[in-house]
Amino acid sequence: MIRRTTTAALATACAALLLTACGQTTTAAETDTSEKKASAGCEGVETSTGPVSLTDSFGNKVELDKPAERVAVLEWQQTEDLLTLCVDPVAVADGKGFRTWDTAEELPESATEVGTRGEPNLETLFGTNPDLIVVEAYTAEDEILKQLAKYDVPVLATKGADAKDPVANMITTFEMIAEATGREQQAEKVVGEFEDKLAASKKAVADSDAAGTEFVYFDGWIDGANVAIRPFGQGSLIGELGEEIGLKNAWKGEVDPAYGLGQTDIEGMTTLGDATFFHTGTVDPAGDINAELAKNDVWKSIPAVSEGRTHAFPEGIWTFGGPRSAEQVLDAYVSLLAK
C-alpha cells in the first residue's frame, strides 16, 4: 500500500453544503455524520457562490459556473484536503486504503469507490456525475490527464509534490482545491491553524533538549527476500517539517526531485551515525517491514536501534498529506522528542 518511488521516478504511481433546512427528515446515520462534521469545525462553513476561474498546477484553465459541489478525487492528499474543506467527495480512488493510511480526516462511506489511484474505473467515476475531478499529476502529459480530457467534465490537476519546497506545494494544492470549491475562508482558517501549530512545535523543541537532533524518517516494504528501505531525505515533506521545528535531517543520499525520497537497504542505514530513527506506525497489509527488521542482527547493531532511539509515529499519519496530516506529523515529533 505504500506509495513506492525510486530516486529516478515514481514506480507506481462535510457534504458540499450542510443540510439545515427546517422540517428536513434525516436518518440516524445522517445525524451522526452532521455531528462529526460540526465537531471537526465544519459547522457554518461559508461557500462562495460566484463563477470560478483558476489555473491549475500545469497552466490549464479551469472554468466553473459556480463552485464545485460534486467532486471526484483520485489521490489521498486531495481527498484529505476536500474533507478538511468540509466537502464530501462523491467518488474516491481506494477509499479503503485512505482509511488505513490517513486518519487526519474521516472519509464517509457514501463516497463511491472508483478503483485504484493508478488505474481508476472511468465508467464508475463518471457514473457519479461529478462537476469537477481532482487529480494528482507529475507532468502536463500524464496519462490520466489524457484520458480525462476525452470527457466533458472539468479537471483540476494538482502537482504531486515538489522537493524544492514541499510545505509550500502542500499549501498551494490545498488552497487551489479551496478556490475550486468556494471554500477559501475555510482554507484561510486551516492554514492559519497549521502555521500556529508549526510555531508552537518549534518553540517546544527549542525549549527542550531535542533542538538540533539528527534524525531520519523512513518507511519501506518487503521485496522478495529483502527489505527495501525508503529514507525521507532533503525535500521530503516530513523531513522538511522536522527541520522547520529545529531538527536536522541526517539522510544525505540521493533523492528523487519530487518527493525527496531516497532508497537504501539495512547496510545503508548503518552509515547514519547517531541519528535518531522515526518510522511509520501503520502496518502495510502487504507485509510488516518492522517485524522483519527486528530479526536482523545488523539492524539491531545500529546505534539508534540498540540504544532505543527508534520511534514509531502513531498509526494513520499520511506522510504525503495536507495541512491536517502535517499537524499530526508535528505533534508526533514533539511528543516523541520534546519531553
From TrEMBL:
Compartments it resides in: Cell envelope
Family matches, as Gene3D superfamilies: Nitrogenase molybdenum iron protein domain
Keywords of this entry: Signal, Transport
The UniProt record lists the keyword ATP-binding: no
Signal peptide limits: 1-28
Cellular component terms per the entry's GO annotation: outer membrane-bounded periplasmic space
Single GO BP term: iron coordination entity transport
Domain Fe/B12 periplasmic-binding: 70-339
SUPFAM superfamilies referenced in this protein's UniProt entry, alphabetically: Helical backbone' metal receptor
Family: Belongs to the bacterial solute-binding protein 8 family.
Protein name, UniProt field: Iron-siderophore ABC transporter substrate-binding protein
